[in-house]
Amino acid sequence: MRRVALFGPPATGKSTLARWLSTELNEPHTDLDDILFTPEGPLPLEEFRRQAAAITATDGWIVEGNFSKLADVVWHRADTLIWLDFPLPLILYRIVRRSLRQLAGREDSAQARRLTWSAAFFARRSLLRTAIRKYRTNRPRYARQVAETAGLGVEVVRLRSPREVRRWRQRTAKGPAESRSRAARHTTGP
């Protein structure tokens, strides 16, 4: 496992798992949101695809993001595709909890600084309403695209709960001896 694409709805722990994998596998981590959303606004699709393709043209990477429209340049180039497919009630609970933390100033991030009560909960395109809408519309499409990706020989890992994520991490984690030898390989000079 050296080329990992990871996706799932908001508040499922994509970033946490991607950072852990990056450390565990000693491969660079990229959040596709960081590429798409620039200070000048979102990149045009063609440029977004070009930049994502450049990242996945390398030997090892961890890429997270919900952009199935990039499946051919991200998912199909992966050796492992991880789908965090949590139940909707859990996702909504986590979105509310995270939004309340951000609105209270307990979390500092670009998203937290832009978040308002309306954007989180009340607007027509609030985080909550968008999560519900996307869950209902995207999930069947994701299932088809994941099956297509698996058909290309990519290993698919579908994790349906935080407990499954924890168990998968335990099975995937390198042992202490392997971690020490890996660290030694990467800290020695030329």
From TrEMBL:
Protein's UniProt keywords contain Aminoacyl-tRNA synthetase: no
Q: Name the keywords, alphabetized.
A: Kinase, Transferase
Q: Which SUPFAM superfamilies match?
A: P-loop containing nucleoside triphosphate hydrolases (SSF52540)
Q: Which organism is it from?
A: Streptomyces toxytricini
Q: Does the keyword Iron-sulfur apply?
A: no
Q: Tell me what this protein is called.
A: Adenylate kinase
Region listing for Disordered, in residue ranges:
167-190
Looking up PANTHER family in the UniProt record yields: TOXIN, YALI0E33011P
User: Where is the secretion signal located?
Assistant: none
Which GO MF term does the entry hold, naming one?
kinase activity
